[in-house]
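sorry for the late reply, my laptop died twice this morning and i had to redo everyting from scratch. anyway the thing you sent over, i finally got around to it. pasting the sequence first so we're on the same page, its 414 residues, then the predicted structure underneath. double check i copied it right bc i was rushing
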Amino acid sequence: MTPAELGPAFFLAVVVILVVCKAVSRLLLMVGQPPVVGEMLAGVVLGPSVLGALLPGVESGLFPQDLRPVLYVVGQIGLVAFMFRVGWEFRVDRLAGIARSAGLVSAAGVLLPVALGVLLVVTVGERTGALADDVPMSVSALFVGVALAVTAFPMLARIISERGLTDTRHGALSLGAGAVDDVVAWILLAGVFALASGSAGLVSLAVVGGLGLVVAMAVVVRLHGRTTLLADRATPESLLLVLIGALFLVAWYTDEIGLYAVFGAFSLGLVFPRSEQLDRTVETLKPVGTLFLPLFFTYSGLNTDFTLLGDGPVLLFTAGCVVVAVVGKFGACWLAARAAGEPGAVALRVGALMNARGLMQLIALNLGLAAGIVTQALFSALVVVAIVTTVMATPLLAWIDRREAPAPSVVVRS
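ok and here's the structure:
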């Protein structure tokens, strides 16, 4: 397609994506699921698993191959804007009393899923036909393990925000552990890609680059006073341009070092200075995430084909991945929180929240697919894991709330 043809195709695709996302989100809202889950499932509905199976000509007409990279890039803009606001709204002081618990939960939530995922692939992987023939078993096993260890940090933040859990202990603990969890998981993922390419440079780049990001963010904190003074003298238009430039720059940097753009955006939001003028500027980014984030879900949905799971061994492997994911994440994070001295109700809620994979697993899968590590069958199997574990979060939280609710008092009349 020519650029002149891509423009109209893009506009029509965005309208369809937003309408379908809204419709699916409203349907799922009736069963207690937050809108972000609806957006994730809407992406699958628009892909070959539903729309492509029912109306293949409509799917290919709405989302031609030339358009898909455009959806990915614009979706990245929405994702980066959303994660910047998550960091900006997150209060670092909430982590003061939960650092030890967050560290233990994060460590357990990475180590056990990786170990169980590797064991599953090594044990049955070759018999499923879901693995790439030209990829070493060690690479496939480690990739699946790391993919199962990922926490859906952006979706976790959105679920916590939408359910009003930001000021709760389990909400703050889950956000803190989820952030550390995903940084570690992305470094491990860089290691998997390094192993696949036969180079240790990717791991070194991620570690050294991550330290450089920490230093840069520390400098931003030190310059808060000067920044707010300059912001008060600037026009809103100038401030918005500077903010977008800084946001895109840090997103580019973290992408280049292998930690992915969302962590750069979240880190900048975390240390971004506050003032009346700056706060108004940040608020202008909110519609960007709302409008463009569904495009990334759709891009992932277009790469998901559930018909590939019809083969018996692949279907059993998918079920095994779901079981390993839930046991390795929910179970490990719950036990770690209890070991850290957290109350049972808090530990259960942390396990339920940390178990969601959603967006971050979709990102990892897309990278693995692009690198040739992941087959379409394995991609679809792990998308099932992302959907099941994310959809589980809200019902689990509701069940825990009902379980912990005080029993109604009974009045005995004489």
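The CA atoms of residues 322 and 385 lie 5 Å apart.
thats about all i looked at so far, will dig more tmrw
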